[in-house]
Design brief:
Elements (H helix, E strand, L loop, with lengths): L3 E4 L5 H4 L18 E4 L16 H35 L4 H16 L1
Antiparallel strand pairs: 1-2
Helix pairs in contact: 2-3
This protein binds zinc ion (2 copies).
The site of one zinc ion has 8 residues, from helix 2.
Length: about 110
């Protein structure tokens, strides 16, 4: 993923506007300060260029991701359940279908 660079000068307009610079740029076009890697979300200066988000934003992101997985897992489980009932009615092997449903949920969670 693309990293974000920002001005390191706190009194600079570019900093205040949370302006993002390209990775290829190394100096602020407003004040000439050297650019630093900043959090994509909150513009906080990052200690290394290995991250895109700061520790706090990354934790928040993980949180919402986990919520999303739970939501989708539940949704697929429900759909599979409906499918299972349908298959029992139409004469398919319900155990095989249940296994398939569990596999689908497992795949989503991993
Ligand atoms: Zn600047
Ligand atoms: Zn952040």
């Amino acid at each position: 993923m693309r990293k974000n660079k920002g001005c390191s000068n706190e009194s600079c307009q570019a900093y205040k506007k949370k302006r993002n610079y390209k990775e290829t740029e190394s100096f602020c076009s407003e004040c000439g300060s050297p650019l630093v890697y900043v959090c994509k979300k909150c513009y906080k200066q990052l200690p290394t260029d290995a991250e895109i988000y700061c520790v706090r934003c990354e934790a928040e992101r993980e949180d919402s991701k986990n919520k999303g997985i739970k939501f989708w897992g539940g949704g697929v489980g429900l759909i599979s359940g409906i499918g299972l009932v349908f298959n029992i009615i139409s004469g398919k092997n319900p155990i095989d279908e249940a296994k398939k449903a569990i596999d689908i949920i497992k795949n989503i969670k991993s």
